[in-house]
Structures are given as structure tokens and as C-alpha cells.
Amino acid sequence: MTSSIRSRARHQYSWQPALDVTAGRFVADNWLLGVSISGKVNSGRFENQDYTGQLRNTNTQRNTSVDITPFVRRYWQFAPVQVFAGAGLSISNTNGSRTTNRQFPGTTQPTNPSEEQTNGFSIGPHLEAGVNYFLTNRLALQLSASTGSLPLGVSGFNAGLVYWTGPGRQADPQQTRDNVQTNRGNWIVEGSFSANRGSTDQTTSTIVQRTTSGGYSLSPSFGYFISRNNVLGISISAGIGTYESSGQNSPDRPGNYWSVGISPYVQHYWTDTRLTPYTRVSATYAVLGAGANESNRNSVSAALGIGLAYMAGQRFIIETSLVDASLGYIPSTNSRDDATSWGANLSAGLRGNFAVRYVLTRPN
User: Fold this and answer.
1) Are 59 and 101 in contact (CB under 8 A)?
2) Maximum CA extent, the chain
3) How far apart are the C-alpha atoms of 351 and 205, rounded to whole Å?
4) What are the beta bridge partners of residue 234?
5) pTM beyond 0.85
6) Burial bucket for residue 16 (CB in 10 Å: 0-12, 13-18, 19+)
7) Residue 340 belongs to a domain with what CATH number?
8) Is residue 1, in this structure, part of any structural domain at all?
9) Using one digit for the tens of pLDDT, what is the confidence trace for 174-227?
């Protein structure tokens, strides 16, 4: 006697472009008039096929959000530091969404598509304050806090780079210097550690369902300057966690998960100046396991990053990424669930993704 497993295939496609731009012009001494525009689209399509490959149903979702904030700022100069405060009006289309579900012939549901669409609109105040530290005559590091409520309560902190244009700010030429951080034979160290714990309660008229989760992760990274301005390194990540779901009418369902990843990389600093561009190329292999009876999920990815590095003193390098591009692949785990997925990401901007790297310099 022979038997076979007839599986159903599920395919999911998603696209999530986003744009965030802030620009302004000085209309008087120390007074800036500007506008911030941000927009995001989350678009996805889910297809369900039977074991013959016949398309059974599709579900399409599209969520859009647009936020426009005109503002005015006042600056106070304390070179090389600049302090500012501002106010504006935030205009948001917060929940523009559309969901379409379609059943195909051969199912028990009608073939006509069903649609659901919602929209939201809001207007509110925008207050902000911050400080700029100039790295060059045109490039500054900006730290700011903002709120959208009265009375005042800080709702967000931001860090990023600001570029100043116009003939009044001539770009000062950078002098070539001996960046001891990037000499051959040095070691570079970075890493992160995180711990989290939380719970969610879902209450209906008859059921109280609680989900609790927590975990720890550690990500050390080491690099070696194989030649002047060129680093060969490796990053390692490891994490463990637990989760538990319990309710009045259901038994406790505890579980655990773990993850391990390894990521070799090559990084090149372009110039021998205090502020220099860099390029980083990396590849990652990771394994995620969940419970004793679950199959492990493997993933591979590759990434390219272009950014700016600032040589702080003789032991530290402060870096921010300007362009990131990555491609990831997760194969299916078994014949019952065709869950193979591909993912791609491209982002660019003067953003607040800063990293501080410590350099172990070679003795003279």
C-alpha cells in the first residue's frame, strides 16, 4: 500500500515603499520655514492553491498613510552647537486601507470579490526642540524631540544628519590626516544586548486570553584591519525566548524559541579624512528554532551598505548608513507547507541609524 501527502500551497507577496523628506528655507535671520512629508504604502497579496495548483482564493490588502507637517523654527547659535525650537501643524491621512477577498470556481463561496475600505483623517499640533552639532560647515548631527499633544509630553526622539545648502555656507575642504583607527593590524569591536518581557490581555464577554512573551539576545562583532582602511570581520547573533498563551476556557500553551546567526563582512573606508564615506558588504546565515516538535527555519541574506564614518578621537568610529540594500531567502521546511519566501529591501536617507565602534589600536 502506498500513500501520498496532498498539500496546499500558500504564496504571499508584499511591497512596502516609504518616503520621508524634510526641507526648509531661511526667510529671516535664524528663522526657518519648512515642511516635512512622509508617506508609506503596505501592499500585500495572499494566494491559496490546492494540491493540483488550482487557485482557490486570493486576499489583497493595501494600506496607505500620508503625513504633511508645515513648520517654523527659531535657531540660536552657540558654535559649533546650534539649538532650535519649532512649531507646526500635522495633517495626516492615517488609515487609508482597502481589503479585497476573492473566491474562485470550485469553492463553496461565491466568485464575486468582497471589498472593505476604511479611511481616517486628523489634524493636530506639532512641537519640537533639538540641537545641531556641526561636523563640517555643511553637515550637522541633529538630535531632536517632538510631541503632538497639549499639554506637553514628549512622544518621539530622532537622530539624523542635516545638510545645509546655499552660498552662505562654503564647504570647507577636509584635510588629509592620519586616522590611527584605520591602520593595518587594528581590531574593531561592536555589539549589542537586549532583554524584553511583556504580556497582552484579550478580553471578550466570556473569555480572558493572556499571551506572555520574553527573550534575550546578544550580538557581538569583531573586525581586523587587513590593510589600511580595509576591515575583514564577522558578527555573531544568538537569542532565546519563551511565550505562553492561557485563558479561562483553554489550557496553558507554553513554548520556546531560539536563534543563531553568523555574518561575515568586508568594509572599506574611502578617504584618509576625519569624515569619510565607507562601503560594507555582508552575508548572513541564520537558524530559527521553535519548540521540540517544530522544524527549524533557515535563512540566508546578503546586504550592501554605503554610509559616512566620523573618526572621534583615536579609539572610536561613529558611523551612519546612507544607503542600504539587501536580499533574503527563506526556504520551505517540509512538503506540507510550501512557505518559501524572498525579501528585498532598499532604503536611503540622512537618518538616525548610528553605530559606535571601538578600535583596539596596535602598539607602536
Assistant:
1) yes
2) 88
3) 45
4) 222, 264
5) no
6) exposed
7) 2.40.160
8) no
9) 677 788 999 999 999 988 888 888 777 666 656 667 778 889 999 999 999 999
